[in-house]
Amino acid sequence: MNSKIIFAVGGLLSLLFLISLFVPVGTGRISKIEHQKLRNRNSMKALEIAINGYQVEYNLPPGALQSPSSETTPARSQGPLIQSLMAQNKIDNPRNIIFFEPNIRKGNSSGLIPDHQPASFVDSWGQPYYILVDSDADQQIPNPDPSPKKSSPVLNSKTIIYSSGPDQDPLTWDDNITSWE
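and the corresponding structure tokens:
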């Protein structure tokens, strides 16, 4: 009885080995561009959490995002907005709370360029992110991506962020990296 089980298991393992020779298996590696997209999505998520934390603490978005048009006209991740989130702007952040501690940009990674005027939190291609916030507290922001095939015309979120991607043009959506997809 035991020899039959051993033979069956051995046959099964042989069959699996033969199948593995013909079935392509990924190497587990991702392309450089996919790695950059993933890194940028992580940066956008950190920035989104910081903006939402600010909103919870002060019951309004950071100063640069307080405009009624902040749902349709994106702010950029630079200047007073970033300074407020990093507790470097006491006018917008009078309690001096650090909501955001970004990494310093090295090479072609996303991160903070502190000596840039204004201070900028940039994507892998050196461009500040685009930020839209829900200004009327209905948890909805019009989708800035005009292509109807990708997603809904309205996004259910308090904050959305996107990068203009490798071509650095926010109007060409094929390569843009978004926080909502």
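(Above: one complete record from the training split.) The longest helix spans residues 32-58.
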